[in-house]
Design goal:
Layout (H helix, E strand, L loop, with lengths): L5 E7 L2 H13 L5 E14 L2 E14 L3 H11 L7 E4 L6 H8 L4
Antiparallel strand pairs: 1-3, 1-4, 2-3
């Protein structure tokens, strides 16, 4: 049976936090590949004040169950209330899926 790939997206406040989270995921066999997007500008309201910050976006490619990833991220994420979402994947190329099949996660 072919493994299904899922992509989860979350954010960290620094590249170092993102790197630590990525390494933890990989060392626990919870991801096959992780990508960063640096210098994301985020804006949100906090106590009626607009807050601006820089963040690092993290894309986590995995074949592990959604519940397991969500629980792990909530437990190990540096944010008290992290944004974590699963992105829908469609039509992933066969060569990449074959590469994932060989991974031990």
């Amino acid at each position: 049976m072919k493994k299904q790939i899922s992509i989860f997206y979350t954010l960290c406040s620094t590249r170092e936090e993102a790197k630590n989270l990525a390494i933890t995921l990989l060392e626990n066999n919870l991801a096959v590949c992780i990508n960063f997007i640096n210098n994301i500008e985020s804006f949100y309201l906090e106590e009626k004040k607009v807050i601006e910050s820089k963040e690092v976006g993290i894309f986590i490619k995995t074949t592990v169950s959604s519940l397991r990833i969500m629980n792990f991220l909530e437990e190990h994420h540096p944010y008290k209330i992290p944004f974590i979402t699963k992105l829908e994947t469609k039509n992933t190329n066969e060569k990449y899926l074959a590469w994932i099949e060989k991974k031990k996660i």
